[in-house]
Amino acid sequence: MKLNNSKSIFYFKVDFLFFGKLIAILFFLFFSIGKMEASNITFDSANEAYGKGDFGKAIKLYESIASKDNLESAELYYNLGNAYYKLNNISLAILNYERAKKLNPNDDDVNYNLKLANQKIEDKIEVAPQLFLNEWKNGIVDLMNEKAWSLLCVFMVVLVFLFFCLYLSSNNNNIKKLGFFGGLLFFTLAIFVYFMAENKYNLTKFKHDAIITSAAVTVTGSPNENGTKLFVLHEGTKLSIIQEEEEWFEVKIANGNVGWVKSNTITAI
Description:
Layout: H1 2-51, H2 55-67, H3 74-86, H4 90-103, H5 108-118, H6 132-141, H7 146-169, H8 173-205, E1 209-212, E2 216-220, E3 229-234, E4 238-245, E5 248-252, E6 258-262, E7 266-268
Helix pairs in contact: 1-2, 2-3, 3-4, 4-5, 7-8
């Protein structure tokens, strides 16, 4: 009797915890759905303002979704970039087109408008040649977004499991070979896809690149006002952040030149 009583209490506790977690999940989903619905209403209002030519209002509404609601999408940044472009704010247009491109690198509209905006900036910097392997890897990583790479990786793992089960369950030598070598192939592909997903995640989530949003920036040889003045860059120019030191960033531009700029002169993508 004591063992049975103990067991009943244990199951009661498990059920209590289960229902507690279930309620928490449902509450989170309800809150998230409500938040997304509110953001959709704001997004529609922003699109309406954009359609009427009220680009300033559209920008405020788009920005409120990205900042206050903490939601982002390629469509949001694309529309925001278009609104800034209409107001001739080229640096912020490029910034938001670049953010849209990070989330959806193969969007033709985003890439076209980004190219169009880049034609309007003052600095025309030639890209330094890359090693073939780096260029090849970056090209593959940009084929899909982070979510697509992750889903493909999960699919590969499922195939590995299925081929492994085929290998264990069959008595036919040919089928066993198919299961073994098929599993080995998809295991190798799963590892490759995992590293592609990880690379895409790092490129998307960690803000290594930035856009100059000040009219002009003097790049110095050290992180202080008295550093040697190396060259001047103008708004809209893209650069990579190497490291941070107090109010300064060490940056690299497309041709490989390196220097320091004040952190308040650039905005991370």
